[in-house]
Every structure is written in C-alpha cells, then in structure tokens.
Amino acid sequence: MTGQGIEVLTGRKETMTSLEIAELTGKQHQHVMRDIRTLLDQGVDASNFGLTSYTDKSNRQSPCYTLTKKGCLILASGYDALLREKIISRWEELETKERTGGFVVPQTFSQALMLAARQQEEIERQQKAIEAKDR
C-alpha cells in the first residue's frame, strides 16, 4: 500500500494516508484510526487530518484519514522512536520525490546504463508507433 497517498486534503502529493502509516509502522489500521480520533478529541487541528474513504478487500467503502506532514508528525510524536523514524523517513522520500519530479538519480554506473537502455527502448517504441500511424 505504500505510496497510496490520497490527494484529498491539500491537492498536493505530500500527504500520507492512515493506511500507509499502518503499513509503515506495522500497526493495525483500526489502531491508527483510533490514535487519530484520540488526537482530534484532544483538540488537535482537524485541518491536518482529512477524513476520506477507500475500497477495502471486500469491495466496501471504509474510512481512512489523509494526513498532512504536520498531522503525521503530531501522530508520530505519540509513537515510539522506531515508528517515528519510519514515518519521518517516508516523509523524506516524499519530499525528495517532489523536488526531483519523481526522477530517481542513478547511484551507480550500472543503474545509469539500465536507465539509458530503458529510455532508448521507449524512444524506439514511440518511433515505431509514429511510423505505423503515418502509414
């Protein structure tokens, strides 16, 4: 489920769902939902927690939350250090992806060669499609 941030709350990609947080932390989704509701009951700013829904395995609509970065950090502050670290690491990934436009810079020469080969294959595929269209 990683990466299924729903863009309901802010229209930005830098959100995480309660489903993703459950997956990252190994907590049950119902417990993450409970933790968020507890925070909201304590008066935490609800604008950091957008209630939405998803289609579950039984093809039913089930509730989940979409959290801003601030919402994630508020939630994580109540978790142990290892769980906080997982949530913060995921935020770093999201922010890096946003800065780079999702482009991952190859870290090794072999990764660079594989990327170049995939790009060349895509160019050739597009050229063939154009040629077929022109016939």
Model description:
The chain is mainly α and 135 residues long. 56% of the residues lie in helices and 12% in strands. It has a 3-stranded antiparallel sheet. The radius of gyration is 20 Å and the shape is elongated.
* Helix percentage range: 55-70%
Taking the alpha carbons of the first and last residues, their distance comes to 43 Å
Q: Characterize the quaternary organization of these chains.
A: single chain
Uncertain stretches of 5 or more adjacent residues: 1-12
Q: Strand-and-helix sequence, N→C?
A: EHHEEHHH
Indicate the structural class.
mainly alpha
Average pLDDT score: 83
Question: Strands, helices and their partners?
Answer:
Elements: E1 16-17, H1 18-25, H2 29-41, E2 49-55, E3 61-67, H3 69-76, H4 81-100, H5 109-134
Helix pairs in contact: 1-2, 3-4
Keywords:
mainly alpha; three-stranded antiparallel sheet; 5 helices; 56% helix
Short description:
The chain has 135 residues and is mainly alpha-helical. It contains 5 helices and 3 strands. Strands 1-3-2 form a 3-stranded antiparallel beta sheet.
